[in-house]
Every structure is written in structure tokens, then in C-alpha cells.
């Protein structure tokens, strides 16, 4: 199970690498393509548009063609994006390949955790799905180190930065050929003998028939179409999933990740280079995700989400006060930012993906997870685009207070509306919302 889930989680590693690799290439592509501010925004943000489109269609395609097949498609898109962007001679071609990479990122963001959730036994599911978030932050950290290694080796070093993701993409595609399709998808397609075989390997031959019967019942009355997910019986799960996806973003994580060097410039200090600061944030994110893997099946999803909202809100409030009163001594801004990233990494960062992957009924999981992931990417784009605008108009302190307010809203919502799913089968978890 660890091996199979680890292979599927590699989609997250490529996701993190693809979205973060551009950070080290920005100066080079700005000079090469002669970019102004708007053009640079398109070059950097095109991947998020691709993510939204990929998330929108991946659910239906994963239901029709299979989870594993869609992950192989994502691997191809990752490789094509890296090679194409690295060979680009014009800005439109570069943006087109970044959009293609975004399609892979958006699709992998929903298919990888869905695959792991559908193939994992209930007692392990939280930890195994958390491997996906660990892979994302390892991919981000890998991109930072790759950029650092390749920077300065030649005039076209930025081309190698993008092309370097082709190798892990090819490895991902090859490894996927040796893992099984999920038993839920097999059962949905009437391949019950194959589904029983996979369930027997996962849960044991004694329990497999009863589990298959439970899965079959969950597909009774299945209908196809977007309207299905908004039926009255599914509406609570849909609203909860969408709001959790949005809260993961509007509490400010990508404003911190993307704009950390800009934030540090505002304090007027010279603590370390922007590259070392981003690497520090990446390392903390990896360590925090490891903590989440150890806790998610012990403490439970709901408890970690509640604790994360509290800790993140406190750190954001502290950052806002530092900027409000102009106190930047003793590395407090760096400390509070690292604590905020640590709190996010071991709570909302990992646990939201776990929750989204297991809360939707089998009948609508593909489409529902697609819609929730689309909402996540739209929220990500909104935060990324609005941060510099809000900073200019409201000031850095005010925007930290805004993110802290969203942490409070998320805390109250989770406390009142989000049930615990720890230790339940997927079919038992879906009953909590019906």
C-alpha cells in the first residue's frame, strides 16, 4: 500500500515542481522575452489558469477512463510542458506550454488523492493521502534546489530549469504501469472480479466480498451529469468540500509562499538572500507535512483543521502587529512566517486534501472533487493576484489581518459543520452528509 500510494503521490511531486520551478527563472525569462509587468504576470500565472481548466474536466475523464489512466496523461503533460517551455523561442509558445503544464497540475491535484483514497484501507487512508501533500512540498523544495544548482551555468540556464522536470515525469509514467486501478472505479465499470482481487490484496480475502457488496450498494441509482452533485442529499457535502478548499487558500498560504521575498524587502533588513528564505520556508513545509502524516489518523481530521486555523490566525495577527507598529527586530517576522507555514503544513495543507478525497459519495466523487478542486484553484488565483494590489492600497499589516479574519471564519465553520471521518470507510464517511 505504501508503494502504490507513493507512486500515485508522485503526481504531487511533479505538481509542486512544475508550479515552483518558474521562481528561479523569472529574471532570465523577463530579459529573454523582454517582458513588462502584465506580460510577466501572464507568464507566471498561466499555469493557474491551466490548473482550473484541468480540474474542471479531470473528474469526468477520470470517471470515464480510470484514475490510473488520467495520472499517466498528467505525466505526459508534465513532461511536454517542461520540454516545451525550455525550448520556447517566443512568449506565446512559452505560455501555451505553461498552460499545458497547468492542465496536468489541475488534473493531478484531484486524481492523485482520489486514487489513494479509493485504494487505501480506512485505518491507513489519512496517512497515505497525506503522502500526496508531502510530495507537493518535496516537489517545491526540489524545484528551489534545482534552480539553485542550474543558476549561472550559462546564458540559457532557465531552459534547463524547465526541461529538468521531464525525467521525473517519465519515471512517473513508467511506475504507473505497475500499479492497479482502484477497486471503486472497477466496481463502477462492472469489473467485479478484478475489483475483488484488488480488495483482497488491500483488506484481506476474508473481508473483500463484504466490502465489494458495500461498494456496489453505494453505486445504486447512479446518474451521470453535473446536476447530480447538487441534489439535496449531496448538497451538504458539496458546500462543505468547496468551502474547505477555498479556506485552504484564502487563509493566505500562497501569498506567503509566492511573495515572501517582497514581504522581507518591506522590513528593510538584510537577514538572508531571498533564495535562502524560500528554501527555509520549503524545508519547514516538508517537516510540517511529515508531522501531519503522523497525526492525521491518530488525532483525526477535524481536530487538526481546528488547531490549524487557531495557530495560523495567531501567527498572521502577530505578523500584522509587527508591520502595523514597524517592529522588525530579533527576526520576528521570519519566525512568525515560518511558524505560520509550519501550522499550515501539518493541518490545512495536508488534511484538506485528505478530507476532500474521502468525503464525497462514490457516485459523484469524480465530479464533486473536480468542482471542489476548481474552487481551490480559483481561490488560489484570487489570493495571488490580489496580494500586491491589496498591499498597495491597504498596507501589508491590513492584509495579514484580513487573512487572520478568514482563519477565524474557517475555525467557526469547521467547528460547527465539519464531521470527523477518521477510521471510517469511504462508504461510511459519505453517510455523514446524507
From TrEMBL:
InterPro entries on file: MFS_dom (IPR020846), MFS_sugar_transport-like (IPR005828), MFS_Sugar_Transporter (IPR050820), MFS_trans_sf (IPR036259), Sugar/inositol_transpt (IPR003663), Sugar_transporter_CS (IPR005829)
GO MF annotation, one: transmembrane transporter activity
| Assigned keywords, A-Z | Cell membrane, Membrane, Sugar transport, Transmembrane, Transmembrane helix, Transport
Query: What GO CC annotations are associated with the protein?
Result: plasma membrane
- Membrane topology term: Multi-pass membrane protein
Q: Does the keyword ATP-binding apply?
A: no
- Provide the leader sequence positions: none
Subcellular location, in the record's words? Answer: Cell membrane
SUPFAM superfamilies in UniProt: MFS general substrate transporter (SSF103473)
Which Pfam families does the annotation name?
Sugar_tr
The residues that cross the membrane are 39-57, 69-87, 93-116, 128-146, 158-179, 237-259, 279-297, 304-327, 333-356, 368-388, 394-416
Major facilitator superfamily (MFS) profile domain location: 4-422
Entry's family note: Belongs to the major facilitator superfamily. Sugar transporter (TC 2.A.1.1) family.
Supply the PANTHER family for this chain. D-XYLOSE-PROTON SYMPORTER-LIKE 2
> What name does UniProt use for this protein?
SP family arabinose:H+ symporter-like MFS transporter
Organism annotation: Dinghuibacter silviterrae
